[in-house]
From TrEMBL:
<dbReference type="Pfam" id="PF00512">
    <property type="entry name" value="HisKA"/>
</dbReference>
<dbReference type="GO" id="GO:0005524">
    <property type="term" value="F:ATP binding"/>
</dbReference>
<keyword id="KW-0812">Transmembrane</keyword>
<keyword id="KW-1133">Transmembrane helix</keyword>
<dbReference type="InterPro" id="IPR003660">
    <property type="entry name" value="HAMP_dom"/>
</dbReference>
<feature type="transmembrane region" description="Helical">
    <location>
        <begin position="167"/>
        <end position="190"/>
    </location>
</feature>
<protein>
    <recommendedName>
        <fullName>histidine kinase</fullName>
        <ecNumber>2.7.13.3</ecNumber>
    </recommendedName>
</protein>
<dbReference type="InterPro" id="IPR036890">
    <property type="entry name" value="HATPase_C_sf"/>
</dbReference>
<keyword id="KW-0547">Nucleotide-binding</keyword>
<dbReference type="InterPro" id="IPR005467">
    <property type="entry name" value="His_kinase_dom"/>
</dbReference>
<dbReference type="InterPro" id="IPR003661">
    <property type="entry name" value="HisK_dim/P_dom"/>
</dbReference>
<dbReference type="InterPro" id="IPR003594">
    <property type="entry name" value="HATPase_dom"/>
</dbReference>
<dbReference type="InterPro" id="IPR036097">
    <property type="entry name" value="HisK_dim/P_sf"/>
</dbReference>
<feature type="domain" description="Histidine kinase">
    <location>
        <begin position="252"/>
        <end position="449"/>
    </location>
</feature>
<keyword id="KW-0472">Membrane</keyword>
<keyword id="KW-0902">Two-component regulatory system</keyword>
<feature type="domain" description="HAMP">
    <location>
        <begin position="191"/>
        <end position="244"/>
    </location>
</feature>
């Protein structure tokens, strides 16, 4: 069963959110459980900042009191023993106190020392209660003041227990709501973002072999999907070009076979006066064309190749031996230059044989009697050179065109040999090059790299 991309992304994102929330919640719960002093200090320092903001002075710059909001004022009035603040001058004298006391908060048997009072929190015993005291220096009207805030241990424990339970409950509700909202938003976003892709998919499903000129539109398509649509359109370009070439090829094949068939029919209609030699010649020509057409169809399909390690020099020797009788009949000598050591290639043995054979056969037919055709094998390439009249510059672009025949050929081939060579080279990742101005002759090179 195929998975849904939108569902998979939504589930992954929601799961990530849950994991992150649980980790944060676990971290805060650990702080509540094992490091409550951290939260206590942060809360006390927040009170220091509030008191600092609410300090009031007269025209002479003397502190007159602290105007806290009603909530904080109620806290310090109702819980005088459990929640205390005091404001000291730079000498340690108490200028204001929530409980009306006139001495600073310090450990028993010690005196207030401004230099050390702000370094860390202080724990003192007062009226049977354990107090956590934090002192911070503040600057107002070019003077230094010290604000002390104290909270009892029992009050801290009560608040922590209540806050922890409330926090966990609120965190759980927040996670559920966040997941539901997030899922709804992402689901709607994906449906909207993928709508152009569904439109493009519907358009693609309507493209038939006789409508390859159609292309998918990239209008309103998300930027991330544009390369996919462009790649599909380029694939259609290649298919359309291949289809047109196939149609042209079929038309050319029909034309090439029509002439010999008409000649054969004319010979047969002579009522016994047909020239047996001419008939056989026409049949042989058609057989050669059909054979090369089958060969071309075979090498045009990559799956027909079986790649293996082989010696290119050994394959070249086989091709030379195969064409020795043709060379003798044409009066052309074949010269093979091959290194003593093996030239190992990853290639299809039969295809490489056909490649060398076709190039060499082409060279033999273009070389004059008494000349030589040279085959050279190196680790980098295989080259075949003839000693004929060469190739005109305006004929070079036509060399690999199917059914094209050069004006200087002495055979009656189908004009498919070089097309087959090009297909074999392309399938192996090789380059088929031609040097047409060798003077005399031409040279075809199969470059392996």
């Amino acid at each position: 069963m195929r998975y849904s991309l939108s569902k998979k992304l939504i589930v992954s994102a929601a799961a990530t959110m849950v994991v992150i929330t649980l980790l944060v919640s676990a971290g805060l719960a650990a702080v509540f459980q094992w490091e409550p002093e951290i939260l206590l200090k942060q809360e006390m320092l927040r009170h220091v900042d509030k008191i600092k903001e609410k300090m009031r002075f007269d025209a002479a710059g003397k502190l007159t009191g602290v105007e806290l909001n009603s909530k904080m004022q109620l806290l310090y009035e109702a819980l005088k023993d459990d929640s205390i603040y005091r404001i000291l001058d730079d000498k340690g004298a108490v200028l204001a106190a929530s409980d009306g006391a006139g001495i600073p908060l310090f450990a028993k048997g010690t005196r207030f020392d401004p230099k050390t009072a702000t370094e860390s929190g202080l724990v003192v015993r007062r009226s049977g209660l354990t107090l956590h005291v934090f002192t911070q220096a503040v600057f107002r009207n070019d003077k230094t003041y010290y604000i002390q805030v104290a909270r009892s241990e029992r009050m801290h424990q009560a608040i922590m227990g209540s806050d922890s339970a409330s926090f966990m409950m609120a965190a759980g509700v927040a996670v559920i709501v966040a997941i539901l909202v997030f899922t709804g938003v992402v689901w709607g976003t994906f449906n909207r973002a993928l709508r152009p892709l569904r439109v493009a998919s519907d358009a693609a499903s309507k493209i038939e072999f006789n409508r390859l000129g159609s292309r998918l539109s990239t209008v309103d398509v998300p930027q991330e999907l544009v390369p996919l649509i462009d790649a599909f359109n380029k694939a259609l370009d290649r298919l359309e070009r291949g289809y047109r070439l196939q149609q042209e090829f079929l038309a050319t094949v029909a034309h090439e076979l029509k002439t010999p068939l008409a000649l054969i029919r004319g010979q047969i209609e002579l009522d016994g006066m047909a020239d047996r030699t001419l008939l056989l010649k026409d049949v042989d020509r058609m057989a050669r064309q059909v054979h090369q057409l089958l060969h071309l169809a075979e090498v045009s399909d990559q799956k027909n190749f079986v790649f293996e390690q082989l010696d290119a020099g050994e394959v070249a020797v086989s091709a030379v031996e195969h064409l020795e009788r043709l060379a003798d009949r044409l009066g052309v000598r074949i010269v093979l230059h091959s290194p003593a050591r093996q030239v190992l290639l990853l290639a299809d043995s039969g295809a490489l044989f056909v490649l060398v054979k076709n190039l060499l056969e082409n060279a033999l037919h273009h070389s004059p009697a008494g000349a030589s055709a040279v085959v050279t094998v190196t680790p980098e390439q295989i080259s075949v050179r003839d000693r004929g009249e060469g190739i005109a510059a305006d004929h070079v672009p036509l060399l690999f065109k199917r059914f094209w025949r050069g004006p200087n050929r002495r055979d009656e081939g189908a004009g498919l040999g070089l097309s087959i060579c090009r297909e074999i080279s392309h399938a192996h990742g090789w380059r088929l090059l031609v040097k047409h101005d060798q003077r005399p002759g031409a040279e075809f090179i199969v470059a392996f790299h």
